[in-house]
Design goal:
Shape: globular
Mean pLDDT: 91
Distance between the termini: 32 Å
Number of strands: 28
Strand order of the largest sheet: 11-12-13-14-28-24-23-18-21
Bound molecules: beta-D-glucopyranose
Structural class: mainly beta
Oligomer: single chain
Largest sheet: 9 strands, antiparallel
Strand content: 35-45%
Helix content: under 10%
Radius of gyration: 20 Å
């Protein structure tokens, strides 16, 4: 793999310096040290290159423990997330590149915000209020992740959060009416916020000028070993879901909510990702592995634990909490390690796994699924927290 295919570069020295600076500032402050520490930390912004649409910036959010998330304005993309192992060694746990250019050719939505509709819409069309809308079919007969040029391929406008709202960045994209065939002008926001308890919060908001489906999700591929050449099959996974949505041959849900009990889809207790992935199971065959939506149990209203993924060797662990009703667990079955120029994914087969918190696939065509239709005057609001943890 060439230089540009390595995980986003990072120096521990840089973080050390920043923490020292924060400590020095907080000592000099008149108020409580904790409050001062909080107030002095702010996102570091740098320029990250250009596309035909303009310049792209990258923001680095760092906390007191040295956890660092970097977000670029192209696709409101999570470029890297530095997390410690049980000996305190930090590594980047999301697949990504150390420059903008490889993202422009990459086909796998690495770390991006996907929209206007994350996941698939069957036959690339839907009917809303009696009118049928035709979208681009960019995944066989279906529309995937917003179409030919979804939210992941747009430059978002960014501003750091006011310090009173935490250490974060707010990104905005205005999607014109008719873009990719969708009705209504949608104003979408993505807010990334990192706190000192090692929680990276991703908040999505949207409003519209006409009724439209909206489903926004982050498409990070996690590899908690920190080595993007190592497959994720030994990662241990728990998903708090009693049911999943089985799919047809084009990965569109059949409409059934099927019990996971007694199937390789039962992750209610921790299982290695690879333990049953090769089982003789019709759904695993159709998905080429795991590429399905789990129906989260949502025992309480608001934000609940959706999934926990752990690399038992390093101890790096991630808890995923969300307000969303579903999570698409995808094991990188279409990753092939080929260069982007050959329509490749660059990273190799199953070297990353996605836990895309979102509404169920194809909801605009599935009346029994929770609705994804946003109407003028309504506010779309969803939150996911990626909690960086270490297990013994
Ligand atoms: C989908 C996969 C698809 C991938 C594209 C995932 O969200 O579930 O089927 O290949 O995105 O990178």
């Amino acid at each position: 793999m060439g230089l540009s295919c390595r995980p986003a570069a990072h120096t521990r020295r840089g973080i050390g310096r920043q923490i020292l600076l924060v400590a020095a500032l907080s000592l000099g402050a008149a108020g409580g040290a904790a409050a001062a520490v909080h107030q002095t930390r702010a996102p570091a912004k740098s320029s990250w290159g250009r596309t035909g649409d303009g310049s792209v910036e990258i923001y680095a959010l760092t906390n007191v423990h040295g956890v660092e998330a970097r977000i670029m304005t192209y696709g409101a993309t999570l470029v890297s997330l530095q997390a410690p192992d049980r000996s305190g060694h930090f590594k980047n746990i999301v697949l990504g590149f150390d420059a903008l250019e490889p993202y422009l050719g990459a086909k796998a939505y690495y770390g991006a915000t996907v929209g206007r509709y994350a996941n698939r819409i069957a036959k690339a069309r839907f009917t809303l209020d009696g009118k049928t809308y035709q979208l681009a079919a960019n995944d066989g007969p279906n529309s995937l992740h917003g179409g030919t040029r979804g939210f992941d391929k747009r430059i978002w406008q960014a501003e750091p959060l006011p310090v009173s709202q935490g250490n974060g960045v707010r990104l905005t994209y205005v999607s014109p009416a008719g873009e990719e065939g969708y009705p209504g002008e949608v104003t979408a926001h993505a807010v990334y916020r990192l706190d000192d308890n090692d929680n990276l919060e991703i908040e999505y908001g949207a409003s519209t000028t006409a009724p439209t489906p909206v489903n926004l999700a982050n498409h990070a591929y996690f590899n908690l070993t920190g080595d993007p050449s190592v497959p994720v099959l030994d990662h241990l996974l728990t998903i708090d879901a009693d049911r999943f949505t089985p799919v047809d041959a084009t990965l569109i849900p059949t409409g059934e909510l099927r019990a996971v009990a007694g199937t390789p889809f039962d992750f209610r207790s921790a299982h290695a990702v690879g333990a049953r992935i090769g089982a003789a199971d019709e759904q695993l065959r159709l998905g080429h592995g795991y590429d399905h939506n789990w129906v989260l149990n949502k025992a309480a209203a608001g934000i609940t634990l959706a999934a926990v993924v752990t690399d038992p060797k390093s101890g790096r662990s991630l808890e995923v909490r969300t307000t969303q009703p579903g999570v698409q667990f995808y094991t990188g079955n279409f990753m092939n390690g080929k260069p982007a120029a050959e329509e490749g994914s660059v990273f190799a087969y199953r070297t990353g796994l996605c836990l895309e918190t979102q509404h169920f696939p194809d909801s605009p065509n599935q009346p029994s699924f929770p609705s994804t239709i946003l109407r003028p005057g309504q506010v779309y609001s969803e939150k996911t927290i990626l909690a960086v943890r270490v297990v013994k």
